């Protein structure tokens, strides 16, 4: 393999344009802010959901899942890949839904070729093929935040790190499946049609969340659905269409910012300011420092008068 995989954010804009750059058409993601079947149903057609949670690194592996049952025969009929590399689980969860919805979704020529190539593979080889796909890795890494300090493609997680993991839920062949590449097989959560999916998946998610302490709130849920702009055009809702187009522009802007490293820019600004003060003479520089100290002191005093402790400063 020619390169590693960086961490990407659980963000609707990131995942939507990741889909688009992989070649999929007329599909997007939306973040769900509550576990409400009706909210999910309103987005119909929904192809599946991707759930992000803090991975319990201290748990021992088990031959049986805590919820549902392993369906070892399902891998022969659906796309399921073992996770064989760090940091790829977000894109892997996305593909676990997308590649199983070919027919409902135009997955594009590159992913169609990849799926056909790996159809006869066992899950371990599918995972290796995914991890070694230059196209998928390049598109994935293009959405990682730029960092001048850490090369995540070469860094392994340590015991002190908070480790997060993505998994997918989708209805396939009349069954609700949980697709997690760290498990040996897809997990069946019982019968489920496309129309029943919102009512079936929400209780499964609630049971998973209930296994965590009450103070744990670091979860995220993204739904994969048909492009909402299509529905807006179909019903002739121009205001809705305009909002969706504006949202796409915001996503593009945010994704562009993720690709840029601003540390160099900030450093140049600081050097420019320092150079200017030095050119004005040492006295001007010292005066500038003292003015800054005085402003900080005044701010602390003002907050103390209002009853705000100094350690609560931004």
TrEMBL record:
Q: Which residues form the UCH catalytic domain?
A: 4-226
**Protein's UniProt name:** Ubiquitin carboxyl-terminal hydrolase
Q: Where is the composition biased (Basic and acidic residues)?
A: 292-304
EC nos: 3.4.19.12
Q: What is the lineage of its organism?
A: Eukaryota, Fungi, Dikarya, Ascomycota, Pezizomycotina
Site annotation (Important for enzyme activity): which residues?
180
Q: Which reaction does it catalyse?
A: Thiol-dependent hydrolysis of ester, thioester, amide, peptide and isopeptide bonds formed by the C-terminal Gly of ubiquitin (a 76-residue protein attached to proteins as an intracellular targeting signal)
Name a biological process GO annotation. ubiquitin-dependent protein catabolic process
This protein's GO CC annotations: cytoplasm
Q: Which UniProt keywords apply?
A: Hydrolase, Protease, Thiol protease, Ubl conjugation pathway
Q: Which InterPro entries match?
A: Papain-like_cys_pep_sf, Peptidase_C12_UCH, Peptidase_C12_UCH_sf, Ubiquitinyl_hydrolase_UCH37, UCH_C
- Gene Ontology molecular function terms on file: cysteine-type deubiquitinase activity
Please list where the region (Disordered) is annotated.
292-314
A single Pfam family it belongs to is Peptidase_C12
Q: Write down the PROSITE patterns for this protein, in alphabetical order.
A: UCH_DOMAIN, ULD
Q: Where is the active site?
A: 89 (nucleophile), 165 (proton donor)
